[in-house]
Amino acid sequence: MHSFRYRDGQLHCEDVDLARVAEKFGTPRYIYSAGTILDHYRRLDAALAPLDHLICYAVKANSNRAILKLLAEEGAGFDIVSGGELYRVLAAGGDPAKCTFAGVGKSFDEIQYALEKRVYSFNVESEAELEYIDRIADAKNLHAPIALRANPNVDPRTHEYISTGSRENKFGIALDHLAAVYESAAKMPNIDIVGVQMHIGSQITEVAPFADAIKKVAPIVRDLKSKYGIKFFSIGGGLGIVYESSFASGSRDWWNADHETSAKHQLSIQEYVDAILPPLGELKLRILVEPGRLLVGNAGVLLTRVRYIKRTGPKKFAIVDAGMNDLIRPALYHSYHEIIPVRELNNPGHEKIDIVGPVCESGDFFALDREMPEVREGDLLAIMSAGAYGFVMASNYNSRSLPAEALVRGDEFALIRKRQTNKDLISGEIDPQW
Ligand code: LLP
Prior knowledge:
Layout: E1 2-7, E2 10-13, E3 16-17, H1 18-25, E4 29-33, H2 34-47, E5 53-58, H3 65-73, E6 77-80, H4 83-91, E7 99-101, H5 108-117, E8 121-124, H6 127-139, E9 144-151, E10 173-174, H7 175-187, E11 191-197, H8 208-228, E12 232-234, E13 253-255, H9 269-281, E14 286-289, H10 293-296, E15 300-312, E16 315-320, H11 329-333, E17 339-341, E18 350-356, E19 365-373, E20 380-383, E21 404-409, E22 412-417, H12 422-426
Parallel strand pairs: 4-21, 5-6, 5-14, 6-7, 7-8, 8-9, 9-10, 9-11, 11-12, 12-14, 16-18
Antiparallel strand pairs: 1-2, 1-13, 2-3, 4-15, 15-16, 15-20, 17-20, 18-19, 21-22
Helix pairs in contact: 5-6, 7-8, 8-9
Bound molecules: ligand LLP.
């Protein structure tokens, strides 16, 4: 389905004209398409139908309550990594019995909170953490359901910062050590073994790393099932999306879900499911998946306005009102985001330009030497595929307010987060009383 496309010369999100949104409510602003998020969720859910499965949306990708609510209403579970995320999920009407609690450094308070709320499983990453959870559960006279996170040592062939399933990473327990840790877990009085989990990395665009990891871990899962009667196997998230859209190849439509049509090959949901279904089906266990980016990445854009054009020697810069504090992915991972004008240009000249933010760092860029139609002062630009790991990684650096967020559904438009004010910026600060 199309969620962002030109209509009457203006970029629309579903049926909402983005230029009008910017006029009325200002920039920088994240805009998400509810229809796209639901479409992605439903496609994945349908493709996984042959398995007993639960989609646990990785809240870290985009944790706005309105988005969590959309997914909770579809019956989604949630993969959380902090007490704060659990709090959000509950505030959005999510079911704690469908929540898995991941992360290498859970705190006392977080473990206690998740135990009280009866999460589905703690995904445990070390023996030390296991012992800690056992002690806290004992003190509360409760049992903690746990899955150990297996580290299958496969190379997901993605950016080093978002690769998690190889021996060098801090994540999970090596396969040759896993059985021993399960044995210790079985002896802990307040631990209930309920599953096994893995996650090999993010923005993975080939099927082989997923298939390899499942192949390596499946025999262990089978053993664990017969020994401890585990109920589920979570294969994590990590499905990549297309960041370079069909605009790059000259097409006028920006396709969200039909990645097959885009300039770059996209690992489709069907391709992924076809590869993982046979080995998973044989296990006869409940299968959990933890997608984040796949569901929300292409469903959002960051809308920004060009403040100034600056020329330095042969270089041209467009200085926009969004900065690295609003969307840090290009600065942090050198990641590519398509950037398109909100007003369609019929006869676009092409030029090379740097699209940069107002923050005082040279790393504050969205595109370097990018071939673009002519960009002028006052133009509105849409930074595409910003729905995942966009707002959630935003900061107040340079004392810039966090941007606003909005959700579109058909021709309806809802503000789902106010832009911060200057007052908000200092509201938590306290003058020392000495
Ligand atoms: N499960 C676990 C245990 C994870 O650590 C993650 C992501 C996911 C699921 C969801 O992965 P996804 O389906 O979204 O690929 N900030 C980075 C991405 C960090 C991913 C961290 N873990 C970025 O902007 O690319």
